[in-house]
Amino acid sequence: MKIYSIVNRYLFQELIPPFVINLVFFSFIFLMHQILDITNMIVNYQVSLLTFGLMLTYSMPYFLVYIIPMSVMMSVLLTFIRMTGDNEITALKAGGVSLYQLLPPVLVFGCICAALSLFMSLYGMPWGAMSYKQLALDVAQSNFSLGLKEKQFNDSFDGVIFYVSHINLEDRMLKDVFIEDQRKEGISSTVVAPKGYMFSGEDKTSFVFRLYDGTVNQVDLDSRAAHTVRFDTYDLRLDLENAVSEARSSPKDEKEMRISEIQEALRQTAQSDSRYYSLLLELHKKFAIPASAMALALLAVPLGISSVSSRRSAGLGIGLFAFLLYYLLLSAGLVLGEAGIYPPAIGMWAPNVIMSGCGLYLLIKAANDQPIPLFQLPGKVFLRLSHFFEGKQG
């Protein structure tokens, strides 16, 4: 009994370093696109480093839900590849330790990581999504230039549509400005100016466009009268308070909802509505993805043990292929589940069942020292290709 506890502690401790390394690596990969976008804000819009750090922090829970199961599989796979390459698995078998007796520390490790991923899914992800949205609105409110896009029509403000051909972020100079203002009932005003400037108003919720050498075309819809006025200087005030308040009071996205909010939304949504399937998918996804840590950990054990009989690189390649297969199945479940082709529960939990089934099958093969056909496939393909080219040369 003592030898088993020593082996279990040793194996559990061996799983931690590769898990941490993979967690950091995959986090960096997943955040790469986010970092580029936020870095662009720092360089071009003078967003503070504190805001940058907060944006990364609020983004992390969403990514960790997916990264943790990936890191679990890679850590188990790399640990068993190393132990098999160093003949530690052979020594344990010679000492009477079967492959099944190595599963408890792996399953405990997977269970702990699944609980961590579940915490991120249930609490971290809604908190991060709502905090990120709040921070983005605060940044947009304090620096309106973040919301401006060159050569795009902007209708963020009620009754106002504006278009700017070029924006100089250093001095906030605008070129080729077109604004349609319908805030006055019955009157439509179109303002066109070759240049202008943008600056903050008296409070943080207002901005002023100061335009030069342009024209104002007004149409009275009631009397059907039109007037054109040329101006040297024209100030147009835009109030962000209404736009920001509307964004904050808008309905929550599925990723921003907690379990109780999703269940309440399901009760208020008709089953024939597409939003019903989206909500149901999100509900099952919050539990299914964390549970994949257990399924992928179980699959990684026989892959790690059997890969050395071929090559270590083959084991890593097959591990990455298993990731790809799992997320392809998950993506297919999301698409088909949203379309209502089959119940969302099947689409979200089927990848876990398939990965677990493959893991158990391969585990039995590896425990009985039987070759795994998956590792023999590359060799057979290479042998067939060699014979083919030799025949061509002959």
* Main sheet strand line-up: 1-2-3-4-5-6
Task: List the helices and strands in order.
Answer: HHHHEEEEEEHHHHHH
The largest pleated sheet is described as:
6 strands, antiparallel
Mean pLDDT: 79
What structural category do the secondary elements indicate? alpha+beta
The dominant shape is elongated
Tally the helices: what do you get? 10
Number of domains: 2
Rg over CA atoms, rounded to whole Å, is 30 Å
- Report low-confidence residues grouped into runs of 5 or more: 377-383
The tally of beta strands, per DSSP, is 6
In percent, how helical is the residue content? 55-70%
Q: Which percent range describes the beta-strand content?
A: 15-25%
Distance between the termini: 62 Å
Quaternary class: single chain
SSE topology:
Layout: H1 2-45, H2 49-85, H3 88-94, H4 103-142, E1 154-157, E2 160-168, E3 173-181, E4 187-200, E5 206-220, E6 225-239, H5 240-249, H6 259-268, H7 274-306, H8 312-338, H9 344-367, H10 373-393
Antiparallel strand pairs: 1-2, 2-3, 3-4, 4-5, 5-6
Helix pairs in contact: 1-2, 1-4, 2-4, 2-7, 2-8, 4-5, 4-7, 6-7, 7-8, 7-9, 8-9
Explain what this protein looks like in three dimensions.
The longest helix is centred in the N-terminal third of the chain and has 44 residues, at 2-45. The chain is an alpha+beta fold and 394 residues long. The radius of gyration is 30 Å and the shape is elongated. α6 packs across α7. It has 2 domains: 2-140 and 256-388, no CATH class; 148-243, no CATH class. The termini are far apart. The protein is built from 10 helices and 6 strands; from the N terminus they run ααααββββββαααααα. A 6-stranded antiparallel beta sheet has the order 1-2-3-4-5-6.
